[in-house]
Amino acid sequence: MFCNGCGNTIEAGRRFCSYCGKEFLGPSEMLQASCGRVYAHVRLLSIFWLAYSALNVLAAFGMFIVANTIFLHAPASGPSWTPGFMHAILGILSVFILVKAALGFAVGWGLMNHAPWARILALILAFVSLFNIPLGTALGIYTLWVLLPADSERQYVETSAPRSRLKEPALHS
Q1: Minimal CA–CA distance to 97: which of 150, 58, 147?
Q2: Which residues of 81-102 are buried (b: 16+ CB within 10 A; e: fewer)?
Q3: Would you say 131 and 96 are in contact if contact means Cβ atoms under 8 Å apart?
Q4: Residue ranges of the alpha helices (H) in the chain?
């Protein structure tokens, strides 16, 4: 089991963490303690992914509007290909950002429900988001800190296992 205060391993049956001194009161405390650091951060991480994806949707729509208003009908002040080129580039970027936002919404929902596939997709999107300074970088680093360490996969599977057992249909003879 793990302490939900500091994340250190504790022995079964102990009421206090030997490292930070946190007291464990009942079964709910023991559930949180057994799941460790990942359990404490996955819900917050899912909320951050949902919020970041909503910001991406707003950015994509803003970029799409700029591409279709300014650059579609802009007079050619420079080379004649500039307005058409910028219209195409901004249109493609807005579609890419919308796809990334849709995947971010899926990650947020999947982490909230402890879906087994959500951890891998979150790690992939975290690496992509590292290039979006400053919010994407912060969210990418936080996601990697929570979900990438070696023990995180085991802890994430432990938190998702009870939920998946509840959703399994009963076998009828």
Answers
A1: 58
A2: eebeebbeebbeebeebbebbe
A3: no
A4: 27-69, 82-112, 118-129, 135-147, 150-167
Q: Going by C-beta distance under 8 Å and a sequence separation of 6 or more, which residues neighbour residue 82? A: 74, 76
Residue recorded with tokens 């796809």: 99
135-169 pLDDT, tens digit each: 999 999 999 999 998 888 888 887 775 544 444 44
Q: Are 143 and 45 in contact (CB under 8 A)?
A: yes
Rg (CA), the chain: 22
pTM, to two decimals = 0.67
The pLDDT tens digits for 33-51 are 445 778 889 999 999 999 9
CA pair distance 172, 133, nearest whole angstrom: 54
